[in-house]
Amino acid sequence: MSQNMDIYSVLLLSVGLAMDAFSVALVAGFGMGKVKLADSLKVSGTFGIAHVIMPTAGWFLGSTVLGLIQRWDHWIAFLLLAFVGGKMLMEGLDEDAEDINANELLGMASLLMFTVAVSIDALAVGLSYSVQGLSIWVPSLYMGVGTLVFTFIGLNIGNRTGQRFGKQAQVFGGLVLILTGLRITLAHMGLLG
């Protein structure tokens, strides 16, 4: 029999899951030229939809793959964030390189990598809901909306800040992405509290 989690727990969980998306969007905004409203909506919409789909998919997968996902999700997130962060870092350090074009960073491959990196935890949350016999329908909507809002805010704050600081912001952004991936990995290994 399905139970429901209280609304405060769902809200806190939604905000917690949105923080990785917020930090990635903030950093991505650093390295881009002027970001258009359409770009902001594209990224935040993609991240938000992923945070509805992933927990729902995890819920349907149930407990059968919970151990496998939890064993590898942090490594996948780390590799994707390290790859994109490393690219930003190298371009920021290269004096001859032009600023990252928003279209390049928001291209299908980069956007897919970012989306997977920030939504893998949502898949694991859906799996844990399934194991506990909790309904995922309403919580997944909260997760999606929370992520959409925080991503939109993060991308625009990062972009306004990044335009002022140029290459330095790009280097900083690359380092933050790599460190975010490392933090996810260390937290999953129980090395961070």
Explained architecture:
- By secondary structure, the chain is mainly α.
- The chain has one domain (13-188).
- Helix content is 82%, strand content 0%.
- It is built from six helices and no strands.
- It has helices at residues 7-30, 37-61, 66-93, 102-105, 108-132, 137-188.
- The longest helix is centred in the C-terminal third of the chain and has 52 residues, at 137-188.
- It starts with 6 loop residues before the first helix and ends in a 5-residue tail after the last helix.
- The mean pLDDT is 80.
What percent of residues adopt helix (DSSP H or I)? over 70%
One letter per element, helices H and strands E, the order comes to HHHHHH
Low-confidence stretches: none
Shape: globular
Describe the largest sheet: none
Number of strands: 0
**Average pLDDT metric:** 80
Number of helices: 6
Number of domain modules: 1
Query: What percent of residues are in strands?
Result: under 5%
| Alpha-carbon Rg, integer | 17 Å
Structural class: mainly alpha
Span from first to last CA? 33 Å
